Amino acid sequence: MLVVLGLFPTAVLAQTAEAAPATEPAPAAEAAAGNDGTDPTRPINSLRASYEHFELRGGRWAGTLATSIEQPFGDGYWTLRARVPFAATNALGNSALGLSDASLRLTRVFGVSRKGGRVAQLEVIAPTAGRDEWGGGKWQLKPVFIQAYFLKNGTIVAPALQHQFSFAGSSRRADVNTTTFDLYVVPRLANRKLFMTIDPALIYDWERKQTFGALAVTLGTNVGRLFGGQMQISVKPSVAVGGDRPFNYGLQAGVAVLGF
Predict the structure, then answer these.
(1) Residue 29: CB partners within 8 Å, gap ≥ 6?
(2) Rg (CA), the chain
(3) For labelling, which of 65, 150, 171, 219 has a CA lying 20 to 30 Å from the CA of 198?
């Protein structure tokens, strides 16, 4: 799903503002086969790496190289994800790459039926960035609630509500307080080796009283086996709209191994 304010460091946002199939899912241990990771109600272990480049307003740019690992546990409907990003931007005149803000996310899937399911997430973001332009300088929490619907034609529609806010950290850094409404759609493609997600979002920044919209479309394919799991590659172009938008457009390239 699109998480617009997690796409690049919060510090860059502040600077630019100012200058699957419709069947009942099973736990991950039983459902790895045929699970491409696009259904939020079907947990699966994964290793991911991606690089995302954004063209910011005012001729600036930002990029994030992110790695993550996610693992189901318990009854298979709990997952834990650790994410370590590295950021670069020319917003302050230095384009070096460095550690950004690492995070840990806990996910619980519940209420799953043939018609849909619900997902609750809580992510903790730590101010681990080595320089101001690489991160937000604040401890942050990001609770998310997702309601997934499985349509008869196999399409998944999963609206989500997210609120991201800071609760501690450097007093000289800007507070974070944003709400995102995200409409995540996974069309069922005729070619089952391919997958697509369509992800429009509306974001409101309570601190700056600013609103903007964004759209991201992911297209990927399964390319074979690696480490005992299914390897995928994907591309994700994105665009932002509105006078308060922090970026104009972006492009992500990613690789993942699922079900290893």
Answers:
(1) 72, 76
(2) 18
(3) 65
Give the SS3 label for residue 112.
coil
User: What is the number of alpha carbons within 13 Å of residue 70 lying toward its C-beta?
Assistant: 24
Residue 224 parent element (H or E): strand 210-226
pLDDT tens for 185-210 read 999 999 989 999 999 999 999 999 99
**Amino acid identity, position 191:** N
* DSSP label at residue 90: S
CA 187, CA 190: separation in Å to the nearest integer?
10
Q: Which residues contact 166 (CB under 8 A, 6 or more apart)?
A: 136, 138, 139, 140, 175, 176, 177
Cα separation values, 87 from 4, 52, 198, Å: 15, 10, 25
* pTM (predicted TM-score): 0.86
Residue with tokens 């005149």: 93
Confidence (pLDDT) at 28: 39
Strand partners, 249: 55, 239
- Cβ(249)–Cβ(237) under 8 Å? yes
Q: Is 227 helix (H, G, I), strand (E, B) or coil?
A: coil
Spatial distance between the Cα atoms of 42 and 98, rounded to a whole number of angstroms: 33
For the chain, the first-to-last Cα distance in angstroms comes to 22
DSSP string, 4-59: GGGSS-HHHHHHHHH---SS----HHHH-TT--S--TTS---EEEEEEEEEEEGGG
pLDDT of 57-99, one tens digit each?
Answer: 888 999 999 999 999 999 999 999 999 999 999 877 777 889 9
